[in-house]
Specification:
Blueprint lengths: L12 H22 L4 H8 L3 H9 L6 H10 L23 H10 L6 H8 L8 E6 L13 E8 L3 E3 L4 E4 L2 E4 L1
Antiparallel strand pairs: 1-2, 3-4, 4-5
Length: 177
């Protein structure tokens, strides 16, 4: 028996499409279960037969973008296509599961647009010599004066703030706030 080089989705475009379609169907099934939506109710919302919904859920094949949007919207969801580079040009690992993208999006606060993303990841510019730094952000600093946390940083020449205002560095040494 010959050994395969790469993930099973590297055999053909059809296999890759099937994997992505199956991943989408799994999301639909999870949403149906969470919201206790039956196949018959989904079929009614889509204006198709229960049998057609069953066929799609059992064997998604090559779903059209239109069908993806229709199924997602029928369950109050949205759909997006994400093209990405993961350094796996030979497709040794297959496509990243959509749940990974969803979890990462939620982890950074479910930003709705680029302005929200930029507010999460915008680095703080060099401030020169700094005596006090006030952090504001998603962490709860209500036990400090004015809802802000003050750090005495008498010798610091520059500051880099990282995710959620939780870590500062001074010359490469992290200070956990």
């Amino acid at each position: 028996m010959a050994t395969m080089n790469g993930h099973w989705t590297s055999r053909s475009t059809e296999d890759f499409v099937y994997r992505i379609s199956s991943d989408f169907v799994l999301q639909i099934e999870k949403k149906m279960e969470a919201d206790t939506v039956t196949q018959a109710a989904l079929a009614d919302e889509l204006g198709v037969t229960d049998g057609r919904v069953s066929q799609v859920l059992r064997n998604p094949g090559n779903l059209t973008l239109k069908k993806v949007v229709e199924y997602a919207r029928a369950l109050g969801m949205k759909a997006a296509i994400v093209a990405y580079e993961d350094g796996d040009t030979e497709n040794l690992n297959g496509p990243i599961n959509s749940e990974i993208f969803s979890l990462c999006w939620k982890k950074v606060g479910s930003p709705k647009d680029f302005f929200a993303v930029n507010s999460l990841t915008m680095p703080v510019q060099s401030l020169g010599p700094v005596k006090f730094v006030y952090l504001v952000g998603p962490k709860d600093y209500s036990d400090t004066r004015g809802g802000l946390m003050s750090l005495n940083l008498y010798t610091m020449s520059s500051i880099n703030a990282f995710t959620n205002g939780a870590v500062l560095t001074t010359g490469g040494t992290p200070i956990n706030a």
